[in-house]
Amino acid sequence: MRIGLAGAGRIGAFHATTLAALDGVDELVVADERPEAAATVAASAPRARTSAVDSLLTSGIDALVVATSTPGHAHLLRAGVTAGLPTFCEKPVAATLEETIDVVRVVESSGVPVHVGFQRRFDTGYRRARDAVRSGELGFVHTLRANTSDRRPPEPGYVPTSGGIFLDCSVHDCDVVRFLTGREVVTVYATGGNKGEPFFAEAGDVDSAAALLTLDDGTMALLSTTRYHAQGHDVRLEVLGSQGSVSVGLDESLALRSVEDDVDFPHGPVHDSFMDRFGPAYRTELTHFLAVARGEAPSPCTVRDALEAFRVAQACTLSLHSGRPVDLTDIATT
C-alpha cells in the first residue's frame, strides 16, 4: 500500500518511522507545509518520498494518515474522505466542538472508514483491563482512577492552541473510561490550578487538574493530570470492583518512589514521554489501520467515539471555569 502522511512534526516523524517498518507499506508519501521538514522525515524512512500538501491526495496514495497540528485535522480529514481515502487522524479530529460535529456528519455520510488515534485502546494493559471489566471477573465496578502526568510542560506557544489541559491530555482518559466500561458519562465536576510557569494562566489554562466523572450506571471515574511530573511520564489506571481490582501502568517504569520500609520497587527506567510509553501501542494501532484501509476490519475508534470523548473533556473544561458540575446534556451532540 502507498500511505500518505500529512504532517512532519514530532508525532508525524514518529508515525513515519512506525509506518515505514510495517509489513504492507510499500511507499510512504510525506507532506508538510514546511517542505524541508517533509524532506527530513522522508530521508530518514525507507521507501519514502515527499509531496506538496496540495497534491498529496492525488499522488497515488491508497490511504491517508493525518498527523499535522490540530488546526489542520478537520480540513484534511474532510478532504481525505471526499477523495474516498481511508483515513487515520490523530486526536482531536477538530479544534472545536462545533467543527467536530460537522466532521462527524461529513464522515458518516461518506461511508469512508476513518480511524481516530486514541492509542491507549491498543495498549496491552488497557485491553486486559477492559477484558477484566467486560468479563465480570471484577464483579461490579464502582471506581476508576485515571492519571496522565507529563514529565515536563510543553512550549509556551503550544498552550493557547491546545484546547486546554482536559482536551489535550485528559481526553485520552475520557476515551478510555468509555472504552473499558462500555458506559457513557452523565455528569462531570472539575477543578484545577497553576503553580508553575505563568504562560498557562495567561492562556486561560491550568497546569494541573482533576475531575470526577459519574457514569450512567453510577460508576465513578476520577481523573487527574498535570504538566509537571519531573520524575517521569506517568500514565496509569486503576479499576476497582466488588470482586477484584486491576491496575494499568504499575510496573518497573512507575515514576513514583516509595517511602515505606524495605520497599525498593520500582527499579526503572521511567518513561520520558508518551511516545516511548506507548510505542508498542502505536505500532499495533497503525497495523490495525492498514487492515481498516484494506477493508479487512472496521474502525476501532470512530469519529463518533472521538466526538463523545471531546464532549466529556469539553464538559470538564466548562466545569473548571464555571466552578459547577456540568451535565453532559448541556454539551451539544448535533
UniProtKB/TrEMBL annotation:
Protein family per UniProt: Belongs to the Gfo/Idh/MocA family.
Domain Gfo/Idh/MocA-like oxidoreductase N-terminal, chain residue ranges per copy: 1-118
Coiled coil, from the record: none
Name of the protein this chain belongs to: Gfo/Idh/MocA family oxidoreductase
Pfam family name, one: GFO_IDH_MocA
UniProt KW NAD keyword: yes
Alphabetical keyword list: NAD, Oxidoreductase
Boundaries of every GFO/IDH/MocA-like oxidoreductase domain copy: 126-246
